[in-house]
Amino acid sequence: MPEQPEQSKTPDNGCEQCRDVVERTDVPHVVRKCPWCGREMHVAEPGAHGIGMKVREGDVVTIPASWIQLSLNPLLNRGHFTEFGLKRFGETTFLGALPGTEQAGNDG
Q1: DSSP class of residue 88?
Q2: Which residue(s) pair with 14 in the sheet?
Q3: In CA terms, which of 9, 54, 58, 67 is 20 to 30 Å from 95?
Q4: pLDDT score, position 7
Q5: How many other C-beta atoms are found inside a 10 Å radius of the C-beta of residue 103?
């Protein structure tokens, strides 16, 4: 852990090293602790060439529930269905738990 800088710590804004960090909790992000003051920061740091997300050792990856949107309309979707995922999404959305399936919970 790096040495503590000379400046004073402020619990609300963190130390001089981390007080200017922009926190994002509305998108997938990592929870990272400042090595100088220990403040937890919610950081969405892009990966190489802007693709993906940079995750460092000790980071906790967080995906907000409000960010996940599944839809058959590609304009409203925030992801891409695989062939299996599309089939499964369609079955659970439109058919529900039909008699004779595992989802129905038959005691048979």
Answers
A1: H
A2: 10
A3: 67
A4: 40
A5: 13
